[in-house]
Design a protein that fits this description.
It is built from four helices and five strands, in the order αββββαβαα. The protein is of the alpha+beta class. Strands 4-3-5 form a three-stranded antiparallel sheet. It has a two-stranded antiparallel ribbon with strand order 1-2. A hairpin with a 4-residue loop joins strand 1 and strand 2 (40-43).
Length: 136
Amino acid sequence: MSSALSIIVFRIGLIVLLYSFGFVQRIQEKFVIKLNYESLILCAFVMFYVYLLQSLKNRSLYVGFSPDLKERVRKHNGGLVKSTKRYMPWELVYYEAYRSKDDAVKREQQLKRFAKGFAMLRRRVRGSLLRNMREG
């Protein structure tokens, strides 16, 4: 194992150890710990996603934000999101990744609040959208 990789593995192990014994009270945004039955995954950097979904039922579009894009799309398609439940199934058409949560939230709000920003995004992904997309 290379020395750089050894240092990274050691640091990750140390963070996990300190966290498990309660010495680390709060993990900052740049670290995420996910526990499942099979493994402990420590991601050095968390990305925050702004995404665009299109309904396969009526071709409407939905803009959202999430730190876990795959899980969020799964929730949309599983009927677990009230605002999108009626128009399932959904297809992920486009996403943007940000290292800053604030930047991602600002971008999501820009797309939801300002028609010009949303129109620009629609033009950008025009080729990825289903034909005869509902305007609006």
